[in-house]
Amino acid sequence: MLTYIDWHTSPEIFNLFGFPIRWYGLMFASAFLAGYQVLSYMYKKEGRSLEEADELLMYAMIATVVGARMGHYFFYEFPLLLSDPVRFFVSMVTPPYAGLASHGAGIALLFAFYLYSKKRNLPYLYITDRVVPTVALGGAFIRFGNLMNSEIVGKQTDVPWAFMFYNDSSLGHDYMTVVPRHPSQLYECLSCLVLFVILMWIWNRKKENTPNGFMTGFFLLVLFILRFLYEFLKENQVAFEDGMSFNMGQWLSIPAIIFAIGVLIYAFKNSKKSI
């Protein structure tokens, strides 16, 4: 008889004077803190000021929260956005931030880095190359938070490492319907950690002489190919995806893959250029 992993973990770590401290919030904050340490290290090694790293972190934080919330509404709840736009704008500034779309965050980050590169007079792809390792590391934290929340669960499976998600909010308290599922959050978490290590290894070889765009293109290509494939193992997040050949996450990954290939081509053609 197969033995699966019973996952009873509560999304809440503890309650502090009536205010719940949750795993997802902790992981979200940890993603930025760890990312800042990595970014500061890279800037210091390349002889850049920590003030620049501080400013870039601020751009990234605002873009991530706003972009992820906007992406969720535009890609997954567009009818609700049209019917209740006030709720949309209120949700931009009021926690809890329930419903975050990584594709929306990605689009907002690309725009934020453009503004930052113009202000600092730095090549755009130089900036994104220094950020993508922190994004990979942050992605690992976020997906671990999803695991602790028992959300974005995988499809039913009989693999020996399958999880029994007893706190899956979509089930309510009906434990009789709990079935072994792919821990898709864990797959993505570990993939992001490996990708982070590879990106830091690439950067460490040449540092500021790394061809502009190579790390960005490599990161986006690997990340979104994996995202496209992992979606086959996940349950759909919203009902309208049930009738689609590919779900929303997969459709949004296709242009990202094409864009990544274009960036890599550019990087190879300009491989002798850096800052």
Can you give a write-up of this model?
The protein is mostly helical and 275 residues long. The chain has one domain (5-9, 18-269). Helices cover 61% and strands 6% of the residues. The protein has nine helices and five strands; from the N terminus they run E-E-E-H-H-H-H-H-H-E-E-H-H-H. The chain has helices spanning 23-45, 50-76, 78-83, 85-91, 102-120, 124-148, 184-206, 214-230, 248-269, and strands at residues 5-7, 12-16, 19-22, 163-165, 180-181. The strands form two sheets. It has a three-stranded mixed beta sheet, with no helix packed on it. The radius of gyration is 20 Å and the shape is globular. The chain crosses the membrane at residues 23-44, 56-76, 96-116, 123-142, 185-203, 212-230, 250-268. One of its GO terms (molecular function) is phosphatidylglycerol-prolipoprotein diacylglyceryl transferase activity. Pfam families: LGT (PF01790). Catalyzes the transfer of the diacylglyceryl group from phosphatidylglycerol to the sulfhydryl group of the N-terminal cysteine of a prolipoprotein, the first step in the formation of mature lipoproteins. A 1,2-diacyl-sn-glycero-3-phospho-(1'-sn-glycerol) binds at residue 143.
The count of helical stretches stands at 9
One letter per element, helices H and strands E, the order comes to EEEHHHHHHEEHHH
Q: In order across it, which strands form the biggest sheet?
A: 1-4-5
- The tally of structural domains comes to 1
Q: Which percent bin holds the helix content?
A: 55-70%
Q: Strand share of the residues?
A: 5-15%
Give the overall shape.
Answer: globular
Report the C-alpha radius of gyration, rounded: 20 Å
Name the structural class.
mainly alpha
Separation of the first and last Cα atoms: 59 Å
Task: Calculate the mean pLDDT score and round it.
Answer: 85
